[in-house]
Amino acid sequence: MSMKALEFDRRYGELDVVVTAFVGQEPESPDPDLPPPALQAYLRHTWHTRPWALAVAEQQLREYARNPPGRLRLRIGEFYPVPDIGLPESRTQSWLSDMADHIKRSIESGDVPPPATPQTHWEWHARFGELGQFLGGWFSQDMPDEFEDHDAAVRDYKETADGQLVARLVGEIHELLTFGLEEHEYVIGIAELGMEVEPPRPHSVESWLLTVAEFLATAGPDYGK
Q1: 138-175 b/e (C-beta count within 10 Å ≥ 16 → b)
Q2: Same domain? 28 vs 97
Q3: Does 39 share its domain with 95?
Q4: Most exposed residue of 31, 47, 69, 127, measured as fewest CB within 10 angstroms of its CB?
């Protein structure tokens, strides 16, 4: 019998967040004294958003490493199956312990990583959740078939999304623009967040996002006018 959501979260919820941060990333670090880049991204984001979750992650990773499930219990859904992140099965338990050790050292040192531009796919989406929904949902490769132009897609988002989510998106756009990135770096960022079409000409990524934020922050309901 599969676990219920509450039991899963209590036992494996934060473990799942940590492991998910490694999907598509190297599981090991070139420097054994430093966390792998994916774990650095998790630590950086979590320190600034949910610092209490670090201790939960350390505990859940270490407990799973000490008490790995058997194949039967995995099959019937009583345990969390660690996704394949490119490690041999024989290395999984020791790897979990190593990641728990890195998290423990981070907690005990109290050395909070400074904010930085996201470095992994997971970190982009963890930090800019609503922007990822907006770009991935309204500006996928199907956008030209669904909307007349970019402005029509933005209007559709404004008209259909909850006002609190719109406000959150405006804040995330302004946060992203504070990075002061080069154009090619912004291109990489919005691609990580799901945008599959180019901004409308003659806009750069930065100028288009600023235009979008200004429209969403000021445009009111039409009321048929």
Answers
A1: bbeeebeeebeebeebbbebbeebeeeebebbbebbee
A2: yes
A3: yes
A4: 31
